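Record now logged underneath.
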Amino acid sequence: MSTRAEIRDKRYQVSRRSAVVGAVVNSVLSVTKLLLGWLGQSQSLLADGIHSLSDLMTDLLVFFAARHAKEAPDDDHPYGHGRFETVGTLVLGGILIAVGLGIIWDAGERLFTPEQLKHPASFTLYAALFSIIANEWLFYYTRYLANQINSDLLRANAWHHRSDSVSSVVVLVGIGGTMLGLPYLDAISAVLVGVMIMQIGWNLGWGAIQELADAGLEEEHLKEIRQFISSVSGVKSVHMLRTRRLGGHALADVHVQVDPWLSVSEGHRIAEVVQYGLIDQVDVLEDVTVHIDPEDDEEGPSCTGLPLRRDAESRLEQYWSHIACYSERNRIVLHYLSGRIDVDLFLPLDCHRSAQEAQQLKQAFQGALSGSDVFRKVKLWFG
């Protein structure tokens, strides 16, 4: 099993590769489309060139976010730096919305001033076709890398490439229509490109906002988590399951109910199996915190306010100091259940000579607790 440091390093290496390849392709596309759009008098190709330029900016953003996200947890970031990816996705969404607004504004002005409408040259068609092919390749390549490391940021960037591909299809139609005698079609295509860019920006930005607001995992993941925990030996029920995303991974904390008479060490072992099993079985989980409960603390009376051991033993001393054998006790085990304390009292074997004496001793200890609002019952153990 890979360590977390190895996983972070792999995510960084794959994200960097995606960013470098995307930056090279988008540099070529943006220069080509902006230059040919200007020379060929195509407003929609110019808008598409700006879109490719925004792709180049986001590739740099991916590189920056991935470099910081790979850093190990520190004193200031005890949960790691995965949220750098989330912030990067949010910034990317904002850039796309701003770019889309700018394109729509410019194309809208030209639509209302027909004399400003441009008549694109035929070679701009080839630029649009080249853009479609290049961005479709980038889409599949980036999505493949995103699935390798389960990165929402890379998936976002892949769909950004797909949006550039779709917008280039619109540009191709717009340029072709304008050349066939529909002068408004190039500007209308530019508006449509702007709308598509804004929609993608909104979807990406909203998803990042949800993550920053600690939105939980989808129900399919929650079901998978509950099913695994329930399959662990010793687990009676699962409740208070909470999750939140952190970059390409997620954190979870959960309350697991076990038998109330288990030892602390057995409960801890069950928690270990749940924790590491979930991290191994559920790919999206990077860290899990398990709280062991002896009862369902969502439904039963709370044990808040009950005394801890030192105070509890002091009170028991007041109740039981006069009873034979209490001063010879071996140990006391306290069980905090349903708002009261149950006591296991371990006494030497020679504290009783018959079952009848043992029963009388039990009645004496239990009777002394009568009227207590803290202690409920006592069990005697001899040995």
About this structure: The first strand starts at residue 237 and ends at 246.
